[in-house]
Amino acid sequence: MQTLSKNAPMPVVRRLPKYHRNLKELLEEGITKISSKDLSERMGLTASQIRQDLNYFGGFGQQGYGYNIEDLIKVIEDILSINNKYNCIIIGAGNLGKAISNYILNLDGNAKVLAMFDVDAGKTNKIFNDINIYNMSELKDYLKKNEIDIAILAVPKSSGVEVAKDVINNGIKSIWNFSTADIAVGNDIVIENMAINESFYTLTYLISENKK
Amino acid sequence: MQTLSKNAPMPVVRRLPKYHRNLKELLEEGITKISSKDLSERMGLTASQIRQDLNYFGGFGQQGYGYNIEDLIKVIEDILSINNKYNCIIIGAGNLGKAISNYILNLDGNAKVLAMFDVDAGKTNKIFNDINIYNMSELKDYLKKNEIDIAILAVPKSSGVEVAKDVINNGIKSIWNFSTADIAVGNDIVIENMAINESFYTLTYLISENKK
Question: How far from each other are the two terminal CA atoms of chain B, in whole angstroms?
Fold first, then answer.
């Protein structure tokens, strides 16, 4: 099956995990093929939206037959690289860092948190979820000795930019940023911001629209 | 200034907080007007994307003058209802619930967490960030006596649906869901999901694209 991921706009990419989850559930229910109409009802999107989204990835449904669910799942997993392994570290071992480490433990994927770091001596030299919490002063040495794919920033906004610089200078190529700091990175670095503010203000927008 | 928020697609709405933040920063730097070109360079969007986005909300820049920053900020704040007050409760007083309460304390808005709830007796009858943590058995009574706008779900995926039902049955109209559970609600209820999975798989997609 041909994939055209290079041409997909980011909003389409961001919808893929939702497709993935729904298709996996269908497969578990013993369903092997589905029409765009049935999938649209399940997912709360329009059938034409679904056809358009899946066409980006070469998932062409057959007329009168629909989509082969197993094929679609494989294509989506391939595009999102869900089945790769990702070694992560978390910078910041406060409530947010710990919540993220819980989350990753439950994530249906191959991400693993190998270490956490904090500047606060009261939080370091401890173990949480079987993960060692090191002092930030040990970061450089740790990154020399361990191959880490993703640095997760769970630090206050005020230190986000500095911590990002720090991990990049020590060889990190991918950042998952929960810090709400605006972090500019070079073209060779990948950054994904967990947009908590955007989500909250989307909620307040929906609340005001709901009252109209 | 005329606003056309009703017609704006959600991706545009989700970009507005970023516009808001950048425009506020410009104002603090003493800048009062800006061209779509300058704004696009600052925000990493194309100038035509910016013109298109802002046109949805009646923010029409004048030829050769650009956008009046103060006006745009007012329109965006009005659309997102940023300046309203929001009384929130958090269900789940673990690391995630506590991280969210920290986040809301630092939020540049008028959201306030009035209470937290948990089923775990080891977490209740305590105070965190000056917020009382109650037992879930007290929720019904609490919601009768207090006017709450938003229930924030910081519970495990397994209890997300049940807790959502619980708060809705007790009069809550708006939910901010951090639980990763898929929660279906009626048309009179507003729900915004903090899409952690979507964000993680967007990151893994970007990582794989970066390696090509």
Answer: 46
β-partners of residue B112 are: B87
| DSSP bridge pairs for B151 | B89, B175
**pLDDT tens-digit profile of A77-129?**
988 888 889 999 999 999 999 999 999 987 766 899 999 999 999 999 999 99
Q: Most distant CA pair in chain B: distance in Å?
A: 64
- Domain residue limits at B156: 86-198
Most B-contacting residue of A173, A197, A205 (CB-CB within 10 A), to test interface: A205
Report residues of chain B scoring pLDDT below 70. 1-7, 59-60, 64, 108-109
For position B47, what pLDDT does the model report? 87
Residue A121 in domain? yes
Q: Considering only CB atoms, which chain B residues are within 8 Å of A6?
A: 209
pLDDT for residue B154: 97
DSSP A149: S
Angle in degrees, 0-180, between the axes of helices A10-28 and A47-55, rounded to the nearest 10: 110
User: Of B80, B109, B139, at which residue does a domain stop?
Assistant: B80
Same domain, A116 and A25: no
Task: Find which of A15, A159, A200, A202 to mutate to test the B interface (most B CBs within 10 Å of its CB).
Answer: A200
Query: Would residue A211 count as lying in a domain?
Result: no
Tokens of B37: 């070109």
User: Coil, helix or strand for B200?
Assistant: helix
**Residue A210: inside a domain:** no
Q: Judge whether B105 and B130 are in contact, CB under 8 Å.
A: no
Quick one: pLDDT at residue B2?
43
Q: Which residues does chain A have with pLDDT short of 50?
A: 1-4
What CA–CA distance (Å, rounded) separates B86 from B91?
16
- What is the pairing mode between strands B67-68 and B86-91? unpaired
Question: With an 8 Å Cβ cutoff, are A82 and B201 in contact?
Answer: yes
Question: Which backbone phi and psi does A166 adopt, to 5 degrees?
Answer: -60, -50
Query: In this structure, are B68 and B163 located in the same domain?
Result: no
Tell whether B204 is covered by a domain.
Answer: no
B202 touches chain A (CB under 8 A): yes
B205 φ, ψ (degrees, to nearest 5): -60, -50
Q: What is the pLDDT of residue B65?
A: 79
Same domain for B105 and B169, yes or no, is yes
What CATH number corresponds to the domain at position B26?
1.10.10.10
